[in-house]
Each structure stands twice: as C-alpha cells, then as structure tokens.
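Researcher: Let's walk through a ligand-bound prediction step by step. First, I give you the protein sequence. Second, the SMILES string for zinc ion. Third, you return the three-dimensional complex as structure tokens. Ready?
Model: Ready.
Researcher: Here are steps one and two:
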Amino acid sequence: MEKKEIFSQVIHMEERIGTFHDELGELKEQLAMLIEENHALAMENQHLRELLDEKDTSEQSNETESSQDKATVGEGHDNLARLYHEGFHICNMHYGSLRAEGDCLFCLSFLNQK
Ligand SMILES: [Zn+2]
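Model: Step three, the predicted complex:
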C-alpha cells in the first residue's frame, strides 16, 4: 500500500469518526430529553396516586366518621391548594396535569369557591 493511499484512508476514517461523534451528540440530547420527560411523568403519576389515596381515605372516613366531614373537606381543600402551588391543575378541565403556562383561571376560581 502506498503511503499516499494510507494517508487518504486515515483522512476518510477521521471524517467518519467526526460524523459518528455528531450523531452520538444528537442521541445524547434526545436521551436527556427523554429522561426529563420520564421524570416529569413519574412525578405526575406519583401525585395522581397520592390524590387517589387521599380520595379513598377521605371516602372511607366519611362513611365511618360522619362527624369529621367538615375537617376532611378542609384538609382536601388544603391538599388541592398545595398541589396547585406545586404546579398541577386541579380544575375539571385539566385535572392532575402539569400547569405549563402559569396560573390557570379555572383552577383559581375552583380554589376561591370555598
Ligand atoms: Zn387548571
């Protein structure tokens, strides 16, 4: 093999490695986005599960301890307010999903109903 030929092969290989490197960088970006999205979904899922648990618990305590109805309702309202301030919808329109665009008028009117 001539030196010139070897040299051109090395150049060619270097170009291909450059392309691989770029593709790897793009894949890394996509992976980071997927991890972020997965994290957000896991958080949302956890909050929804907590809400379901609270709902079950308050329904059970309503059945067995009707004298504590008022306390349970107040507690439920606090939980919803906390959830809203953590960035989730509590309104009928988007219940349980992330508030991506600041305050939600539906949520606020729901919070102020009490
Ligand atoms: Zn809302």
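Researcher: And what stands out?
Model: Residues 89, 91, 93-94, 104, 106-107 surround zinc ion (CB under 6 Å). The chain has a mean pLDDT of 84.
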